[in-house]
Amino acid sequence: LYTAPACARQGIGRAMLHHLEGQAMRAGKSRFELAATLNAVPMYQACGYAAIRPFLLPLPGAAPLSGLLMAKACPGLAAAAA
C-alpha cells in the first residue's frame, strides 16, 4: 500500500488495508503477510500485524530499502466471512 505524503495520517492506508483484508477473508484466507517499509510498521502493528523478519530490497542505482516482513492470522474471521 502507498499513501501520498499529502494524504498521510488521514486513515486512508488503514481503510485500504481493511478493505483488502475483507476481500481476502471473503476468498477464504485466514493469514495475511506483507512487506512493510519501516515508516509503515507502526500502522501495521496497530492493525494486528507482527514482525517475522527484517529484509533489504535492492534498488537499482540506490541504497537498498529496509523493511520488515509482517503477518497477521485471523482464523476465526475467514469462517465468519464465508
The helix tally amounts to: 3
What fraction of the residues are assigned to beta strands by DSSP?
Answer: 35-45%
Low-confidence stretches: none
Mean pLDDT: 89
Work out the radius of gyration: 14 Å
Helix and strand pattern: HEHEEH
How far apart are the termini? 25 Å
Given helix and strand content, the structural type is: alpha+beta
What is the spatial order of strands in the main beta sheet? 1-3-2
Shape: globular
Q: Roughly what percent helix?
A: 25-40%
Find the count of extended strands (DSSP E, 2+ residues): 3
Q: What does the largest sheet look like?
A: 3 strands, antiparallel
Account of the 3D structure:
The chain has 82 residues and is α+β, with helices and mostly antiparallel strands. It contains three helices and three strands, in the order H-E-H-E-E-H. It has helices spanning 12-26, 41-46, 75-81, and strands spanning 31-37, 50-59, 62-73. A three-stranded antiparallel beta sheet has the order 1-3-2. It is globular, with a radius of gyration of 14 Å.
